[in-house]
Specification:
Distance between the termini: 35 Å
CATH architecture of the largest domain: 3-Layer(aba) Sandwich
Mean pLDDT: 93
Family: Belongs to the IspH family.
GO biological process, one term: terpenoid biosynthetic process
Number of strands: 14
Low-confidence stretches: 1-9, 337-345
EC number: 1.17.7.4
Strand order of the largest sheet: 10-9-11-1-12
CATH class of the largest domain: Alpha Beta
Cofactor: [4Fe-4S] cluster
Structural class: alpha/beta
Keywords: 4Fe-4S, Iron, Iron-sulfur, Isoprene biosynthesis, Metal-binding, Oxidoreductase
Largest sheet: 5 strands, parallel
Radius of gyration: 21 Å
CATH superfamily of the largest domain: 4-hydroxy-3-methylbut-2-enyl diphosphate reductase, catalytic domain
Strand content: 15-25%
Number of helices: 10
């Protein structure tokens, strides 16, 4: 898919790459991946994981090779086994099912997702109609909606606003999936507020800092790019959104790839500037593979476009910290760099 922008800035004739920063792993993904790695190191294989720990093929394949077994539901896990909940979170029903099967669980839910769960519980307790902006079927949305199913309605896009019906227009609040397009979410909120003037906002921004930061970086480089390549898997919501953001911000074309081998030679024909970024669940090695591939095709100059610097880190799940301590290992934070983005002056 590609589009042509009617007004384009002057382009350089030198082949180059504009590399977005921030990109790749966020703190929540880092924490979840390291949690599975540490569980395998501490307890040995197999360690079961409900759904994909994060939405990235490379990460899942690598962990599977090390002994992780990925399942769709808890009833696929042998009773008494160890199960890791993914970064996307789970509903109370899933937790109850794990307890019923005597599973030793490790909760790798991203703390920012947990925050949204708590918001749903709080507003349901106060008997609000909760409008959850997100994508039906996404694990994160299923988990959040499961906290208060009788109070939550899912709104997939601005076009669905007209279909929303609430009990009391004066007791309505919106919350959102953490990995959405900021612009589209705000358009949905705008339309909801037109329909429900008393619509309340969540106490803090639900779209996670990493999602926002990666979109801001893409918006900055896209107007200069003939092509933007987003590294990320098809089921990664934030990666898919980055393609959309790049096109909306003025890139001539944008494509998502899991690995460098998916880059087609015809994409590079007549191109002088390629933007490169990656979703929040993508390890940097995959981005560097893309950079190497582009260099082999004449794009040897790489300029970083940085819009923020991240320093946020999350502690490992408490169940895992307790297990590491019992095993005589000092619990440490995830080893990879995961920094909170702060706008530069």
């Amino acid at each position: 898919m590609s589009v042509t922008s009617p007004e384009r800035p002057a382009r350089t004739k030198t082949k180059r790459v504009l590399l977005a920063a921030p990109r790749g792993y966020c703190a929540g993904v880092d924490r979840a991946v390291v949690a599975v790695e540490k569980a395998l190191e501490t307890y040995g294989a197999p360690v079961y994981v409900r759904k994909e720990i994060v939405h990235n093929k490379h990460v899942v394949e690598t962990l599977r090779e090390r002994g992780a077994i990925f399942v769709n539901e808890t009833d696929e896990v042998p009773e008494g086994s160890r199960l890791v909940f993914s970064a996307h979170g789970v509903s109370p029903a899933v937790r109850a099912s794990a307890v019923a099967r005597s599973l030793d669980t490790i909760d790798a839910t991203c703390p920012l997702v947990t925050k949204v769960h708590k918001e749903a519980v709080r507003f349901a307790k106060d008997d609000y109609d909760i409008l959850l902006i997100g994508h039906t079927g996404h694990e994160e949305v299923e988990g959040t909606a499961g906290e208060a199913p009788e109070h939550v309605q899912i709104v997939n896009s601005p076009d669905e606003v007209d279909q929303v019906v609430v009990r009391d227009p004066d007791k309505v609040v919106w919350i959102s999936q953490t990995t959405l397009s900021v612009d589209e979410t705000m358009e949905t909120v705008r339309r909801l507020r037109e329909k429900f003037p008393s619509l309340q906002d969540p106490p803090s921004d639900d779209i996670c800092y990493a999602t926002q930061n990666r979109q801001v970086a893409v918006k900055k480089l896209a107007p200069e790019c003939d092509l933007v390549i987003v590294v990320g898997s098809a089921n990664s919501s934030n990666s898919v959104r980055l393609v959309e953001v790049a096109l909306q911000a003025g890139a001539t074309a944008s494509y998502r790839v899991d690995r460098k081998v998916e880059i087609k030679d015809e994409w590079l024909e007549g191109v002088t500037t390629v933007g490169v970024t990656s979703g929040a669940s993508v390890p940097e090695i995959l981005v560097q593979d893309v950079i190497t591939h582009l260099a082999e095709h004449g794009f040897g100059t790489v300029d970083e476009v940085r819009t923020a610097t991240e320093d946020l880190m999350f502690s490992l799940p408490r169940e895992l910290r307790a297990g590491l301590k019992a095993a005589g290992e000092e619990p440490k934070r995830p080893r990879r760099e995961a920094r909170k983005e702060l706008p530069q002056a």
